[in-house]
Amino acid sequence: MKKNISILGSTGSIGTQTLDVVRNLKNINVKCLSTNKNIDLLLQQIEEFSPEVVCVMDDKLSKELKQKIKNKDIEVKTGLEGLIYISTYKNVDLVVNSVVGNIGLIPTIEAIKYKKDIAIANKETLVSTGELVMDLVKKNNINLYPIDSEHSAIFQCTQGNAENKIEKIILTASGGPFRTKTNEELEKVTVEDALKHPNWSMGKKITIDSATLMNKGLEIIEAKWLFNLELSQIDVIVHPQSIIHSMVQFEDSSIIAQLGCPDMRIPIQYALNYPNRTKNDYPRLDLFLNNKLEFEKPRIEDFECLKLAIEAIKIGGTMPAVLNAANEVTVERFLNKEIKFLSIPKLIKKAMLNHNVKFNYTLGDVLEADNWARNFIREVSIFEC
User: Fold this and answer.
1) What would the pLDDT profile of 297-317 be if each residue is shown by its tens digit?
2) Is the N or the C terminus of the chain less surrounded, counting Cβ atoms within 10 Å?
3) Predicted TM-score (pTM) of this structure
């Protein structure tokens, strides 16, 4: 029996790789697709996969797309309401959330309420509202499959170990393109430098997060909620080769690791086809060619974003939402060449210091904190950066 899926962010890095996995699996129907503004690529996807509904976040482009496919029996939706529509669509079994940013939060929550299984690559949902989301997952008895390579690795390592207690998990980090640079060298980093990841091919935002190590901080917060762990049970280790994607240490001291080529299609396929492992033609790991595995401690003082993320989850409440929102806007400002690389953690820290945390929070409180942080960062003068 074929599985019916909806892909939020089908024209992005994870979305396009998800469709590549669909081509290989042959047992999945793509019912819904969405894009922010890339309607040219969405048109190609429509021709190939024949979805029943598509969503374009930009209203003007949504109307343009509607005209271009007026002879097709396809619904065209727009904006957040459109994302919610395709997340809760009646003919969908699994929702792939691959959008970047907090825009993916409400559609995910609504999909869970409609008892849709979720394959999640959108870090922000669990970072901002992890406790609320996981409570809803349990209440509605749905499956939440991680797509991030690190969390997928942990998920895979725990299979068959439900009765065995986890002592800790070890999240691996490549260290990004600036792993060996001094603080003085980091002062001179350009946008072009930061977008050159040594191992992975990713979207711009997550590539910058990898360069600042914020991605690892966000992954710590995600892992806490996904695997019901204490912060003390989560370690981060720099592994430049990106061969080991993460590890789980059990209380008998045994460590189980998941290895593979740095290819996001592998964790995507596992999430889409769980619990089955289906044959594919993706590159195989050659241990004779990749015969060097190195491990280092993260330079937390030089890459302060990781430190700030740990501080945010220690504080709790709405602070992780502020961290996440502030990071999104600072990365945007860096990509627009408004601020320097080392201004990213400085501005995030400034937002965190100025935020009044709510601890017994609601979804409304999270959205309010998110909006506050975005406005705060946008209004900070360039001369304060």
Assistant:
1) 999 999 999 999 999 999 999
2) N
3) 0.93
Q: 334 vs 176, which has greater pLDDT?
A: 334
Q: Which domain holds residue 50?
A: 3-146
Q: What is the 3-state secondary structure (H, E, C) of the chain?
A: CCEEEEEECCCCHHHHHHHHHHHHHCCEEEEEEEECCCHHHHHHHHHHHCCCEEEECCHHHHHHHHHHCCCCCCEEEEHHHHHHHHHCCCCCCEEEECCCCHHHHHHHHHHHHCCCEEEECCHHHHHHHHHHHHHHHHHHCCCEEECCHHHHHHHHHHCCCCCCCEEEEEEEECCCCCCCCCHHHHCCCCHHHHCCCCCCCCCHHHHHHHHHCHHHHHHHHHHHHHCCCCHHHEEEEECCCCCEEEEEEECCCCEEEEECCCCCHHHHHHHHHCCCCCCCCCCCCCCCCCCCCCCECCCCCCCHHHHHHHHHHHHCCCHHHHHHHHHHHHHHHHHCCCCCCCHHHHHHHHHHHHCCCCCCCCHHHHHHHHHHHHHHHHHCCHHHC
Give the CATH number for residue 106. Answer: 3.40.50.720
**Does residue 230 sit in the same domain as residue 336?**
no
Same domain, 160 and 295: yes
Question: What's the mean per-residue pLDDT of the chain?
Answer: 95
126 and 28 in a common domain = yes
Q: How far apart are CA 244 and CA 260, in angstroms?
A: 7
Q: Is the pLDDT of residue 206 over 60?
A: yes
Mean pLDDT, residues 1-14 taken together: 95
Looking at the structure, tell me whether residues 152 and 129 fall in a common domain.
Answer: no
Percent of the chain with pLDDT over 90: 91
In this predicted structure, the answer to whether residue 173 has a pLDDT above a threshold of 90 is yes
Write the single-letter amino acid at 285: L
Looking at residue 87, its pLDDT comes to 98
Q: Are residues 122 and 171 in the same domain?
A: no
